[in-house]
Amino acid sequence: MKIFMKNTVIKRHGFSLIEILLVLLIIGLLSSLVAYNVLPSQDRAMVEKAKADISIIEGALEMYRLENSSYPSQEDGLKVLVVGKTDAYGSTKSSRSYIRRLSKDPWGNDYVYSIPGEYSVYDLFSYGADGKKGGEGLNQDIGNWVKEVD
Question: If you average pLDDT over every residue of the chain, what do you get?
Answer without folding.
Answer: 79
